[in-house]
């Protein structure tokens, strides 16, 4: 059982739900007393199941494709270490695919009123399941082609925020693209720290992540770009939806982003980056909560 808990990689779940928390905080501002906690918890459940599915598929795919080996930095993986067989992991992937689909159907039943919307979100859910599995598994895993960053931006940012908001409110605010993009960029920054740490083992495995393609120097510059762009996106949203100076308070997250950027810049030993991988994930979650809360403040405090 311990091996399965490790394979689930529960530490990744806070990052996975960051976009859901942000979206629902923004939805609460619009709906207030009409906010649906049933939809909120079903969205959380579906997201958690998809993230665990992605983690299991990643464990399996990296073991099969050679990215996980004895010289790899970071936590031990279950299939590569032999604690879980490939066959058992494949069965778990099928099970969590089914659970994710069933949970998604329940979410749509609770939140969607028209057939067109239902079919659209079913398609989106199927794409999310496929993306979770084929990141490192399958014949042509897109994570090995350097497309993981784009996938994270789409699903941890745009789909996570805009989709969750729509399920609550039933309509979209185009300016939500700014915080959705910010949320996605910070999730990409988490992946980038991971990929900078694993750059040597990824080269050996033929995994062409962004840091492998750019080299470490430019991967660090790319990291700073992600961090600054996220803050700028947040500022743009407040500019277009300004109600109170309190909305700008989310910028107090900047020192944590700067700390992570300097760590990635200075630390050369892969193992030294491990604490900052966790720190970046927590900072991303804090950004989502802080941004959402600061946009709610004008409802309760007037200046």
Automatic annotation (TrEMBL):
Pathway assigned to this chain's UniProt record: Quinol/quinone metabolism; menaquinone biosynthesis; menaquinol from 1,4-dihydroxy-2-naphthoate: step 1/2
GO biological process terms on file: menaquinone biosynthetic process; vitamin K biosynthetic process
Entry function: Conversion of 1,4-dihydroxy-2-naphthoate (DHNA) to demethylmenaquinone (DMK).
Keyword Transmembrane helix part of the UniProt annotation: yes
Keyword annotations: Cell membrane, Membrane, Menaquinone biosynthesis, Transferase, Transmembrane, Transmembrane helix
Protein name in the entry: 1,4-dihydroxy-2-naphthoate octaprenyltransferase
Membrane-spanning residues: 12-28, 34-53, 92-112, 118-138, 150-168, 174-197, 218-240, 276-301
Protein encoded by which gene: menA
Listed GO MF terms: 1,4-dihydroxy-2-naphthoate polyprenyltransferase activity
Keyword presence, Transit peptide: no
Topology versus the membrane: Multi-pass membrane protein
Signal peptide, first to last residue: none
Top enzyme category: transferase
InterPro entries (UniProt xref): MenA, UbiA_prenyltransferase, UbiA_sf, UBIAD1
Provenance organism: Flammeovirga yaeyamensis
Gene Ontology CC annotations of this record: plasma membrane
Similarity section: Belongs to the MenA family. Type 1 subfamily.
Catalytic activity: an all-trans-polyprenyl diphosphate + 1,4-dihydroxy-2-naphthoate + H(+) = a 2-demethylmenaquinol + CO2 + diphosphate
Subcellular location, record wording: Cell membrane; Membrane
Entry's EC annotation: 2.5.1.74
Pfam families, sorted: UbiA
